[in-house]
Write a sequence for this structure.
């Protein structure tokens, strides 16, 4: 992990299994929507979020997945993206297209968590998510996925490698990883692609090694997940991790715990 002092050197992108943290500038672009829910804030100043509701100008916001928007900020923004598979306990963000503003107190608390995470040395500790009784099967399945990633990955093949029926495998995999099989493979591909880009590879090379059909397919998937293309991230600090637990508190804690006295307003 880059230290906090080097944070503003160049953009930071950290990708886990089902989540990502980005710290850096946001270039004005066209309205877009993406598959991950989004938490964004600035430590000072505000972030402007444009959409069907007009313009939300606040220290930060919570944005459900699939909501068309455009984000504008004059300074580097901090963003947490979370796959909707990890938000099944928060129906309000899985089903209602509401945008919610964060208060300055909430943004400050999130900034403190971000800095604590950046200054914490990598522990190498395993993820805290409990695995099913067959947890010994997980390393073998993960190794199989890593080796199979350059080609199309079929759930039937993964189930056979695990020695399970397709239906049993799908249930077991969701319990073990917290993600659907399809979503987990997508995040694995994105991780490999950004790792490859960070070595100086071309988009075409990164797409091939990560199992995308071509560079256009990689770019479409990246934009669909994060709302930005992958090419500008070649110069970023890239950190990949196998955890499915985001390093920053998120829903519902981002709203209900950070600032009970000043709840953000919902719009939309």
């Amino acid at each position: 992990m880059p230290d906090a002092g080097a944070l503003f050197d160049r953009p930071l992108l950290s990708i886990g299994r089902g989540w990502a943290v980005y710290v850096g500038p946001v270039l004005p672009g066209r309205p877009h929507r993406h598959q991950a829910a989004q938490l964004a804030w600035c430590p000072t100043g505000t972030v402007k979020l444009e959409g069907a509701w007009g313009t939300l100008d606040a220290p930060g916001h919570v944005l459900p997945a699939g909501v068309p928007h455009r984000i504008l900020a004059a300074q580097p923004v901090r963003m947490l993206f979370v796959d909707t598979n990890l938000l099944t306990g928060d129906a309000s963000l899985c089903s209602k297209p509401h945008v919610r503003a964060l208060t300055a107190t909430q943004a400050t608390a999130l900034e403190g968590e971000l800095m604590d995470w950046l200054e914490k040395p990598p522990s190498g500790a395993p993820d805290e998510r409990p695995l099913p009784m067959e947890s010994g099967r997980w390393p073998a399945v993960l190794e199989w996925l890593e080796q199979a990633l350059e080609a199309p990955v079929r759930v039937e093949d993964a189930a056979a490698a695990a020695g399970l029926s397709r239906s049993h495998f799908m249930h077991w995999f969701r319990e073990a990883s917290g993600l659907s099989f399809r979503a987990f493979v997508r995040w694995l591909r994105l991780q490999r692609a950004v790792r490859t880009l960070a070595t100086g590879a071309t988009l075409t090379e990164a797409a091939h090694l990560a199992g995308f059909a071509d560079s256009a397919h990689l770019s479409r998937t990246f934009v669909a997940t994060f709302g930005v293309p992958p090419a500008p991230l070649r110069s970023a600090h890239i950190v990949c991790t196998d955890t499915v637990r985001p390093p920053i508190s998120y829903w519902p804690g981002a709203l209900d715990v950070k600032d009970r006295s000043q709840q953000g307003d919902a719009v939309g």
Summary: Residues 4-124+245-267 form a domain with the Jelly Rolls fold (CATH 2.60.120.10). The first helix runs from residue 91 to 95. Confidence is low (pLDDT under 50) at residues 89-95, 123-134, 252-264. The two ends are 37 Å apart (CA to CA).
